[in-house]
Amino acid sequence: MAKPRKVNSSLEIALVDTFVAESFPAASPVDHSNRTILQPEPRPKFKPVMKMEHPKQVVGPQSASTNPVEHRTLDPAALLDQIGNLHSSADELAGMFARTQRIKHIDSVKIHQYQAAAYERAFENKVERIGNLNYPELARREHLSGTLLLAVAIRKDGSIYRIEIRRSSGHKVLDDGAVRIVRLAAPFARFPPDLEKETDIVVITRTWKFSDDSSMTTGR
């Protein structure tokens, strides 16, 4: 049997390299010049927020007024004088107003005396009717009687201008009762047009009689 031939080791290595080179050709170099390199997006930059501080209003102590307050002491005598002056002024105004009013007693109306007489009768009928319905209770219980003279001034609209007791009955309850009856009977009728042209106020003066039988009448 023939013995195997020894192969040169250097030759074997060269043959292996040649085989590898022919079987696996070297890869061509890659051109990186046109390669797009993705860069990370920059983070947004936030501007720092500056906190605005409102200026604080410093409230200092209130300065005292440079003008001193004058404290006046009320003089009682002077105050009474002022009140008296006010009353005098009010009385003067009332007097001036009264002087501008045309006031006539019902009996002194001459131009329209028939209208005045009819108005007087209507007044008497009303106060007698109201008076007997509202007779003073105390006078009824005590059976008081008496007569008094009462003047009633009536404005042209029928309202009461003034009530005056010309002569007392001697019993306060009867005097007050007569005044109360007039106020209960008011307002009265308005003046007729012709009478209204002649006067602003008429005064009706009548004698009021309170009897012990709890009845009352009026007359001249």
Strand element count: 5
What does the average pLDDT come to?
A: 77
Strand content: 15-25%
Rg on CA atoms, Å? 63 Å
The CATH topology of the domain at 103-211 turns out to be TolA/TonB C-terminal domain
**Series of H and E elements:** HHEHHEEHHEE
Largest β sheet strand count, sense and barrel closure: 5 strands, mixed
Helix content: 25-40%
At CATH's second level, what is the architecture of the domain at 103-211?
Answer: 2-Layer Sandwich
Instruction: Give start-end ranges of low-pLDDT stretches.
Output: none
CATH superfamily of the domain at 103-211: TonB
Notes on the protein architecture:
There is one protein chain. The protein has helices spanning 9-23, 76-100, 113-133, 137-142, 172-185, 193-198; strands spanning 103-105, 146-155, 160-167, 201-210, 216-219. The protein has 220 residues and is α+β, with helices and mostly antiparallel strands. Strands 1, 2, 3, 4 and 5 form a five-stranded mixed beta sheet that branches. Strand 2 and strand 3 form a beta hairpin. Helix 3 packs across helix 5. The mean pLDDT is 77.
Keywords:
16% strand; TolA/TonB C-terminal domain; 220 residues; 6 helices
Write the layout of secondary structure elements.
Blueprint: H1 9-23, H2 76-100, E1 103-105, H3 113-133, H4 137-142, E2 146-155, E3 160-167, H5 172-185, H6 193-198, E4 201-210, E5 216-219
Parallel strand pairs: 1-4
Antiparallel strand pairs: 2-3, 2-4, 4-5
